[in-house]
């Protein structure tokens, strides 16, 4: 089964995030899908590629721990700063590459060190499918 290619402007959601984020893809590979840069599994750099998800609700996040302690144990979400040390985990068989990197499909996931799992909600295009 095919899955849509993810590209710049895709909507992402973290399991501990308070709101959706956006995928930024730098036009390094110069390959466009539906008129915008196509993503690879290497497009996983916090802030540069992965925008914050509003408030982080992970009990493993040090800023959440500190804010909760300061609030005398009342759970206190804090601003999200994604911490993604590794590339996306491909959702399907990575058969298409861009610049020697597998392309990013809509079934891929990305793990944050604070325990969140980031998924693609809307891939940024729907007209071109990766076989």
UniProtKB/TrEMBL annotation:
Pfam families: DUF4280 (PF14107). InterPro entries: DUF4280. This is DUF4280 domain-containing protein. It comes from Paraburkholderia silvatlantica. The lineage of its organism: Bacteria, Pseudomonadati, Pseudomonadota, Betaproteobacteria, Burkholderiales.
């Amino acid at each position: 089964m095919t899955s849509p290619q993810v590209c710049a402007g895709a909507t992402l959601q973290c399991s501990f995030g308070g709101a959706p984020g956006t995928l930024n893809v730098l036009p390094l590979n110069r390959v466009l899908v539906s008129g915008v840069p196509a993503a690879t599994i290497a497009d996983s750099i916090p802030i540069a590629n992965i925008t914050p998800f509003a408030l982080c609700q992970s009990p493993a996040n040090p800023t959440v721990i500190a804010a909760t302690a300061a609030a005398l144990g009342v759970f206190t979400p804090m601003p999200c700063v994604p911490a993604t040390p590794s590339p996306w985990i491909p959702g399907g068989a990575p058969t298409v590459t861009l610049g020697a990197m597998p392309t990013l499909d809509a079934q891929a996931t990305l793990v944050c060190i604070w325990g969140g799992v980031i998924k693609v909600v809307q891939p940024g295009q729907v007209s071109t499918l990766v076989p």
